[in-house]
Amino acid sequence: MTARVPGSKSITNRALLLAAAATGVTRLRAPLVSDDTLAFRTALTGLGVRITETGDAWEVTGTGRGPVAATNATDADDADADADARVWCADAGTAARFLPPFAATGKGRFVFDGTDQLRARPLRPLADALTALGAEVSTGPGGALPLTVTADGLTGGDITLDSSFSSQYLTGLLLSAPLMSAPLTVRARSLVSRPYIDMTLALMRHFGALTEEHGDGAITVHPGGYTAADLTIEPDASTASYFFAAAAVTGRSVTVPGLGTGSSQGDLGFVEVLRRTGAEVEITASATTVTGRPDGRLTGGFDVDMGNISDTFMTLAAIAPLADGPVTVTGIGHARLKESDRIGAVARNLRALGIHTEEGPERITVHPGAPRPAEIACHRDHRIAMAFSVLGLRTGGITLDDPACVAKTFPGFHDELRRLFPGAATPQGI
């Protein structure tokens, strides 16, 4: 079976910013259309970037510079640079982490805010970095949103960045570094999710940036801006994890075309974890296929560090009760600071299903068991809803308290799961 997986959120939002900062018009083909990417796109248009839809593509007319706060004025060149540009990030963490550095390379006063869920996510390391680079920055309670940036361009420099909470702080700085007037060198301390930085650097180079990686882990980006460059967005590897896991637990075969050996997404590494559970995995240049054992049996009894692919740990944890031995996931402490405390939320849901589950600050252990009917508390977290929907293919009586939260990254998720597995159980009430 072929799964219809939409474009990568991570690539879509990075490419949107790069195209916005570039000189010229960029055509982004097959972008993800979801709550998060639409929030990011809307935020950019509010900063004066022109984005139009043409068929299945978005055309972005880049500004070639940082934004000016009063772009809603009739003539941006005559606009009052001290006027506020208010940027609504909704639930999109990428908007809250990527757009403030972009604003800091521009001119004026920018106020970023979002939902209560986004306000709960930390921004202090990013705010401190922007302050060190010369911007005037203030945050809300606890170093979170609302965040105000008073900007007059950035000159670059040499800084150390706390990256133990999220790699998105580093990505945000790197994406806007070519708009600074001098080189930026960043030393990331305790970096998590390194594959996302590799993705960021690859996309920056696609748009013409000059970057250097040093032996001590530091990264230098040289000034010079970006040049428009068309791009086709590959399918989202994090979203694909649910369909690959569904193949493993149902004994079927699922192929995701467009997601192969050349992928820039680290989360494709999830299929190697499924290989440890006994699934067959084939990765070619143009597609990835996962085939489960005929009886859907999973092999357990192993530990796995998923720190670099933490967005997929919930997929594994949700199906782990079906394994023949305990499964322990480590290295995921930063997942407690995502849309929800993902370790705690997954553990509580598994216990509600009657599954013996243990957790620590940066790990979770799931023991084999027969899940009983229960309602899953999604915490408005799309990944919790999608992960437990996969378990629902094998376990009757699972319901989701917020099935619509999948719209954050894949509005059509439930329909696609039903299309691929019409004879299997699906969460009730969807």
Structural overview:
There is one protein chain. About 3% of the residues have low confidence. It is built from 13 helices and 23 strands. The strands form seven sheets. It has a four-stranded mixed sheet with strand order 3-4-2-14, with helices on one face. It is of the alpha/beta class and 430 residues long. It starts with 8 loop residues before the first helix and ends in a 10-residue tail after the last helix.
Q: How many H/I helices? A: 13
Distance between the termini: 22 Å
What percent of the residues sit in helical stretches (DSSP H or I)? 25-40%
- Our estimate of the beta-strand percent is 15-25%
Major sheet: arrangement of strands: 3-4-2-14
Shape: globular
Contiguous runs where pLDDT drops below 50 for at least 5 residues: 71-82
How would a crystallographer describe the biggest sheet?
A: 4 strands, mixed
Output mean pLDDT.
94
Q: Give me the Rg, rounded.
A: 22 Å
Number of strands: 23
Class derived from helix and strand content: alpha/beta
List keywords for this structure.
single chain; 430 residues; alpha/beta; 23 strands
In short:
The protein has 430 residues and is of the alpha/beta class.
Q: Would you spell out the secondary-structure blueprint of this structure?
A:
Layout lengths: L8 H13 E2 L1 E5 L5 H12 L3 E5 L2 E5 L22 E5 L4 H12 L2 E7 L2 H4 L4 H9 L3 E3 L8 E6 L4 E6 L5 H9 L7 E6 L4 H13 L4 E3 L5 E3 L4 E2 L3 E2 L4 H14 L2 E5 L12 H7 L3 E4 L3 E5 L10 E4 L7 H7 L7 E4 L11 H11 L4 E4 L2 E4 L7 E3 L5 H10 L6 E3 L12 H8 L10
Parallel strand pairs: 1-13, 2-14, 5-6, 9-10, 18-19, 22-23
Antiparallel strand pairs: 2-4, 3-4, 6-8, 7-8, 10-12, 11-12, 15-17, 16-17, 19-21, 20-21
